[in-house]
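The instructor's notes for this session suggest beginning with a concrete chain rather than abstract definitions. Hand out the sequence below and ask the class to guess, before any prediction is shown, which regions might be ordered.
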Amino acid sequence: MSYIYEMHCHTGCTSRCGRVAPEEIVRLYRENGYSGIVVTDHYSPLTFIPNWNPQSQIDFYLEGYRRMKAAAGQGFTVLLGMELRHYASGNDYLIYGVTEEFLYHAGNLMMCGVKKMRKFCDENGFLLYQAHPFRPYITRVGLKYLDGIEVFNGKCSSGENEKAYAWAEKSGKLMVSGSDFHTVKHLARGGIITEKMIESNDDLVQILKNKEFSIVKNN
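After discussion, reveal the predicted structure:
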């Protein structure tokens, strides 16, 4: 049996660019044959207002994830991830394995920069991917900071995705695919297909590390 998981998804109640409620996202993905979603709401200056004090707003940040998890119930996996953007940067990073406890105690992650975020990931067993690395405003970071690269993004052009795939293939970095879901038109464009059920962030990290998946590309 195969399982399909969305790896890049924004909820309408947390990401200010999102337009769909978490409960509706679960329904839509279930109807499209998915087995679960990693919620990667934006952890960025546009999410937190005032954006200098995100630590006081972690419950707000977690609302989309928590509502989606509650709506999913049994038989559909909802995991916490993150799409992080630092101050004065257009780069986005997908982080897998994130925990609520980490977010409550990590301080302002928008200030840390990719070097410090690499350290956090190493200390906590998270995986760090550069999201949509060939969009026009993105600067590709040193490979030493990355576990992987988003090689297919449902909102990117085929050319941008092809360049991302080539970069990951040449570098030997891990790969991932995601729809970058914000609205219904982005539904089920990306994700990973596994032969093993993913029920926890530990499961997810191991499957990504071991490359025990294939990539969804629907654009």
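Then share the key points. The CA atoms of residues 31 and 167 lie 34 Å apart. The helical segments are 22-31, 58-72, 100-105, 113-124, 158-171, 201-210.
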